[in-house]
Amino acid sequence: MKFNVTTKILIGLILGVFVGLLFTSAPDAAKTYIKPFGDLFLNLIKMIIVPLVLSSLVVGAASTGDVRKLGRIGAKTMAYYLLTTAFAVTLGLILGNILDPGMGMTLPQDAKVEVKQAPSVVETLLNIVPTNPVKAMAEANMLQIIVFAIFLGIAITFIGEKGKPVLNFFDSLAEISYKIVGIIMEYAPIGVFALIVPVVAANGPSVLLPLLKVIITVYLGCALHAALVYSSLVSIFARISPIRFFRGAAPAILMAFTTSSSSATLPVSMEVTEKNLGVPKSIGSFVLPLGATINMDGTALYQGVSALFVAQVFGINLSLSQQLVIILTATLASIGTAGVPGAGLIMLTMVLQSVGLPMEGIALIAGIDRILDMARTSINVTGDIAGSVVVAATEKELNRT
């Protein structure tokens, strides 16, 4: 029997969970002997991210042939990302109020966590424009790469025929990058298996039980957000059944769940949107890299649940106005902190500060952050893919066949 890549990845994920449970008594062995195979897979993915994003965005921006059309696509993309993020954090707050994940828990006295300082709005806006594009690519600074690539694509459009040789170069580079992604995906099932084993081994069931309610709340919220928001959007705008959408997006969703990285999943996301869901490269290569950097629906939902969790642990009642502040802060922070390492905890710091909640509450969340990160990254990536489908449909460029 021949399995497709999605099935192989799923098998690798399930086997990884079972093997990880066997290694709960020896997590260091799993980390020493199995994790390197997963790290190799991540390194292969990271190797191709920068050339893939740069080339595909340049081609995507230049292929529109119309700067006004590019602006229209950009406006639709930003509106979609902001609205779905606001809905996600609202859903997180609703579930947090209903399920009360923090009730009956106490914060350890010695709980400490180091959280990096979030950048200011002005710093964020200035930092997205690279002073040295080569340095931005060397450091894999995705926001700066995106800005440079968009400028490059627009300039190629403006100069017309003289820009064709450069466009042809990036088009060839993009095709080569897609081929490399296909080769790497053959190794994906092994990489997924090797990544999930040490996570399960280190966070076995006994460790997760005290915080199981928080995990269930976040995972339930992510499932509801996907079922309510993304299913509705692809059905209404693209006339695609939710079953077909999620089946087509499955390889990227599984990859996101395992790697907990939107950037690492980006090559797979670009492949499935074009081949499985009919999104043209000119749109997918613009919407998806942008989404991997600024769209954080799953992370915003996690902010809502986590903020209420911390408030409940400390016996603090949040008013309706304070919860509205959380919605606004989490929505805007999703853009400002997306390119920063540890973005989830940085966003949570900003959200807790906005309503005066104790920073010490982050310590509890940090303990299970890796488990929560798997679910929220899956939703972040699913949102990016749904966004590309919706934008392509509104531009009447979606290939439904």
Automatic annotation (TrEMBL):
It is a multi-pass membrane protein. Coiled coil: none annotated. GO terms for molecular function: symporter activity. The chain crosses the membrane at residues 40-59, 80-99, 142-159, 180-202, 214-238, 300-320. PROSITE patterns: NA_DICARBOXYL_SYMP_1 (PS00713), NA_DICARBOXYL_SYMP_2 (PS00714). It is found in: Cell membrane. Gene3D superfamilies: Sodium:dicarboxylate symporter (1.10.3860.10). GO terms for cellular component: plasma membrane. Keywords: Cell membrane, Membrane, Symport, Transmembrane, Transmembrane helix, Transport. InterPro entries: Na-dicarboxylate_symporter (IPR001991), Na-dicarboxylate_symporter_CS (IPR018107), Na:dicarbo_symporter_sf (IPR036458). Its main location: membrane. It holds the Pfam family SDF. GO terms for biological process: dicarboxylic acid transport. PANTHER family: PROTON/GLUTAMATE-ASPARTATE SYMPORTER, PROTON_GLUTAMATE-ASPARTATE SYMPORTER. This is Na+/H+-dicarboxylate symporter. It comes from Caldanaerobacter subterraneus.
